[in-house]
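RECORD TYPE: inverse folding
INPUT: structure tokens
STRUCTURE:
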């Protein structure tokens, strides 16, 4: 949650267009590890991330309380509105599962930014097995 939009909201300004509205399905983040990570630890981490993402959506009060701790200088009403918008706009994903169209959109943005020369072939760029297991 960026403080800049929250500061604008505090001054009475409104978000009229957000990145998720422009890009459609998109994954903002990925977790990188070494290839030799202990599979049990990796699975526990991904499962915990999935539980946290689901908790954000099912327990708005706790999500807002976390936001208030992270941004104590902002009014609680601004934090609450920001958390609600982040959930509504799917900035906080519903789960760790990554749909193929979401991955393609994320990679295409990286190609457009010249961070990647092209979209990597399926299965060569990312191991989604931990997320796949968690999503079942």
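DESIGNED SEQUENCE:
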């Amino acid at each position: 949650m960026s403080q800049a939009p929250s500061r604008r909201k505090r001054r009475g300004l409104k978000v009229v267009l957000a990145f998720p509205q422009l890009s459609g399905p998109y994954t903002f983040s990925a977790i990188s590890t070494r290839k030799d990570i202990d599979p049990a630890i990796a699975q526990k981490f991904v499962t915990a991330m999935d539980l946290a993402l689901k908790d954000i959506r099912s327990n708005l009060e706790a999500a807002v309380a976390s936001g208030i701790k992270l941004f104590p200088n902002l009014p609680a009403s601004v934090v609450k509105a920001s958390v609600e918008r982040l959930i509504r706009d799917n900035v906080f994903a519903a789960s760790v599962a990554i749909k193929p169209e979401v991955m393609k959109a994320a990679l295409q943005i990286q190609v457009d930014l010249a961070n990647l020369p092209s979209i990597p072939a399926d299965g060569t760029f990312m191991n989604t097995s931990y997320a796949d297991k968690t999503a079942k």
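NOTES: The first helix runs from residue 3 to 10.
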